[in-house]
From TrEMBL:
It comes from Waterburya agarophytonicola KI4. Keywords: Cytoplasm, DNA damage, DNA repair, Endonuclease, Hydrolase, Magnesium, Metal-binding, Nuclease. Its EC number is 3.1.21.7. It comes from the Bacteria. GO terms for cellular component: cytoplasm. Mg(2+) binds at residues 37, 105. This is Endonuclease V. DNA repair enzyme involved in the repair of deaminated bases. Selectively cleaves double-stranded DNA at the second phosphodiester bond 3' to a deoxyinosine leaving behind the intact lesion on the nicked DNA. It catalyses: Endonucleolytic cleavage at apurinic or apyrimidinic sites to products with a 5'-phosphate. InterPro entries: Endonuclease-V. GO terms for biological process: DNA repair. It is found in: Cytoplasm. The gene is nfi.
Length: 214
DNA sequence: GCGACAG
DNA sequence: ATCTTGTCGC
């Protein structure tokens, strides 16, 4: 992860680390759920990571941490984690407690090489993670009913790589996939447990706000 | 070659 | 991601 300069290099790391992803439940009782997100400053020169830890299931903010580092990798579809993870890793030590679960702003297994941001972060931190993306990256799916809570499998090459979930009545759905140490049904349950009246989980909403405010 | 393409 | 006010719909 340190000093990754080229896409070819990043791809090698993905091919190697993808085998470390655990797709079954390996979590303890979830008391703290975290949301992580990245914001940019100084015309993208600086990456600002924000981590928001909420109590579960109350969803109240209990701790937050941020970190700013120079942006060292461009945005290349399929390699988002190499752009965002360095800042997230820098912010983590600023936390006093360790979250039991992390909801990431991006895909998990719903990735060309089954190693999206959520998988990458989960493996590096060895903490259960879920990928919660606001738009589709790969995969196809049937139409989703308009009621909050309905979902359909996200398929790629006859393989279920995640689900497309209606997080709120009649709004654009979100894309949920396994990150690390959790299975898909459990991931759906926790994402639902982090939703209130908005399209995005509270964890991500807090992280978004912290990462994009000065 | 042409379009698609997490944030 | 980010630039940005009001506005249409439930």
């Amino acid at each position: 992860m340190i000093n990754v300069k080229t896409v070819a290099q990043a791809k090698e790391i993905q091919e190697q680390l993808r085998h470390k992803v655990i797709t079954c439940d390996h979590l303890k009782e979830v008391k703290y759920v975290a949301g992580v997100d990245i914001g940019f400053e100084d015309n993208y020169k600086i990456s600002k990571a924000a981590i928001a830890v909420l109590s579960y299931p109350e969803l109240e903010l209990v701790e937050k941490a941020i970190a700013r580092i120079p942006t060292a990798f461009p945005y290349v579809p399929g390699y988002l984690s190499f752009r965002e993870i360095p800042a997230i890793l820098a912010a983590f030590p600023n936390l006093n407690l360790t979250p039991d679960l992390i909801l990431c702003d991006g895909q998990g297994l719903a990735h060309p090489r089954r190693f999206g941001l959520a998988c990458h972060l989960g493996v590096l931190l060895d903490i259960p993670t879920i990928g919660v993306a606001k738009s589709r990256f790969i995969g196809e799916h049937e139409d989703i009913p308009l009621e909050k809570g309905s979902w359909k499998p996200l398929i790629d090459n006859d393989e279920t790589i995640g689900v497309v979930l209606r997080s709120r009545n009649k709004v654009k759905p979100i894309y949920v996939s396994v990150g690390h140490k959790i299975n898909l049904p459990t991931a759906i349950d926790y994402v639902m447990g982090c939703l209130t009246k908005y399209r995005i989980p509270e964890t991500t909403r807090w992280a978004d706000r912290l990462a994009s405010s000065k």
